[in-house]
Amino acid sequence: MIPSSARIDRTFSALADPTRRAIVQRLALGEATVTELARPFAISLPAISRHLRVLEAAALVRQERSGQFRRCRLDGEGLRTAAAWLDFYRHFWGESLDRLDEHLKSSAAARVPKAKGRNHGKHKARAKR
What we know:
mainly alpha, three-stranded antiparallel β-sheet, 3 strands, elongated
């Protein structure tokens, strides 16, 4: 089943940004606070928070309050949405390309002229020598 258009749009839109992809990569290693996520970037904490909200809306990240900190972790739902969409089209294009390959092979085989005799179409004058 193909995910809904709105869900897949949110997922790929969120992943289109290199900062958000880097955040997802970092969270693949384990949970982190917003401050820890912001450390490698030359942007403010509010900017990281905006990126995290986009990732949350796309079901790629979850945030939970832990005392005064917000801990972030990956949410597999958005990644499953993207994987389902990609799998559908991988299967679709795989079958389409297989059919095209078979068609091209059968068309090429039909067009190849059959060789006659040992000389494979060489001039008769040369063959008599």
